[in-house]
Amino acid sequence: MDTSSALPPHGGDDRLPTTIEVLVVGAGQAGVAMSEHLSAQGIAHLVVERDRIAERWRTGRWDSLVANGPAWHDRFPGLELPGVHPDGFATKDQMADYFEAYAARIAAPVRTGVEVLRVRRLEGRAGFAVETTAGPVEARYVVAATGPFQRPVIPAIVPSTAGIEQLHSAAYRNPEQLPAGGVLVVGAGSSGVQIAAELRRAGRDVHLSVGPHDRPPRSYRGRDFVWWLGVLDKWDAATPPAGAKHVTIAVSGAGGGRTVDFRELAASGITLVGRTTSYADGLLHVADDLRATIDRGDASYLSILREADAYVERNGIDLPPEPEAHVLGDEPACVTHPARELDLAAEGIASIVWATGYGADYSWLQVDALDDAGRPAHRRGVSTEPGIYFLGLPWQSRRGSSFVWGVWHDARHVADHIAIQRAYLAYASDADHPAAPPHASLAGAGAIGTEH
Ligand SMILES: Cc1cc2nc3c(=O)[nH]c(=O)nc-3n(C[C@H](O)[C@H](O)[C@H](O)COP(=O)(O)OP(=O)(O)OC[C@H]3O[C@@H](n4cnc5c(N)ncnc54)[C@H](O)[C@@H]3O)c2cc1C
Q1: Residues with Cβ within 6 A of ligand 1?
Q2: Residue 248 — pLDDT band, cuts 50, 70, 90?
Q3: According to the model, what pLDDT value does residue 15 have?
Q4: Number of domains in the chain
Q5: Nearest atom (ligand 1) to Cα of 48
Q6: What is the pTM (predicted TM-score) of this model?
Q7: The domain spanning residue 308 has which CATH number?
Q8: Helices and strands, counts by H and E, the chain
Q9: Are 338 and 290 in contact (CB under 8 A)?
């Protein structure tokens, strides 16, 4: 392995080297995984991170967040999560500590406190000119590992002049942070349902505006849903289900992990409403879609149970039957007779938490790797601009791509691709260099025929 340019983890603001073979932007789990696979290929690289390693796990989430997947699953292959039972759910700080420890363990050459400001193509030769807060660097290859969830998105529905506190789930930390009074949580993916439940437990009046979601069983027949999605080959699905660009999975590891059930949320006192559509004069309008949305979520839940049963039967596996899991309770009144509008003042709603997802910001990446809408143009992370790669994108190669274990596998593919390209470039024919040493070998790139 060529470690000649492997720099020790660094916290300072020293200048960067003037050239580097591969520059990885971002030291979240994606950047750390990328470093491991580049090192395994013997490829010199540097990871630059504007904050700290795994900063988004450390400070970009609410206080009580635990991982959505159990510790045996939501980790990299090379290291277990210390201090967490394999079937338990790591806290966000344990996750951040884990990636820090992992980076140290693999001696990842990370420079923290360095932001990449701009990447442009070099003129007349391969590679990229990179401007950073620690000076310029030329990189032959650049991997954008800046996260699947970069820029919080709040739909332009309630104006800031409406006199109500509004924040994105990315800025939510705990119930005490919000002004006294009721809360409307918009969005019922993993973030929205967990935040709504926490606010309700804290004694708040809570409305939850529910959009399309899948809600797998937390566990079924003694196996966690992450296992079922694995054996049923759903993590590896290459594209979202037809008709859905991205369907949120409503799942939670909170409280030891329980199936997200909107009936239970309603029974706890949360008022469910449909998708938030518009606002005028203190009135928030919601779509007439709540029942259909809940029914679709139930259908996704039941279909996993059926597929799981079929899998058990087909493979003759001894897992305890769980017929009661197929029985759904009655739909609550807020679902059978849903509100179509909310008078925020009359309902006592003093704040809105928008758990409405994230967008991307690649304005720093000034190369031909983005589509007209500014989204990555790529195939499994290999962009349309030769030499530029993405890692950690939602659905980069499969459903699991933005999750801890999935990004590790995508990183291997990206590193393989870089290694293969380097092997081609290392080729020298006898005509080029009559006295040249043996020809470059693609097999030596460790990549041809490697599938995962
Ligand atoms: C609330 C929430 C809970 C989640 N729970 C789970 C879970 O339980 N299990 C799971 O597998 N996944 C989970 N995920 C999904 C995913 O694992 C995380 O989003 C994870 O943080 C993604 O890692 P990443 O390295 O791809 O991106 P990030 O963690 O976002 O890291 C990207 C890094 O790039 C840095 N960066 C950005 N721009 C620049 C720049 N220009 N220059 C230098 N540095 C830059 C950022 O500071 C950041 O540290 C969750 C996501 C959310 C939002």
Answers
A1: 25-31, 48-51, 55-57, 61, 65, 67-69, 74, 115-116, 145-149, 191, 364, 392, 402-404, 407
A2: confident
A3: 77
A4: 2
A5: 43
A6: 0.92
A7: 3.50.50.60
A8: 9, 23
A9: yes
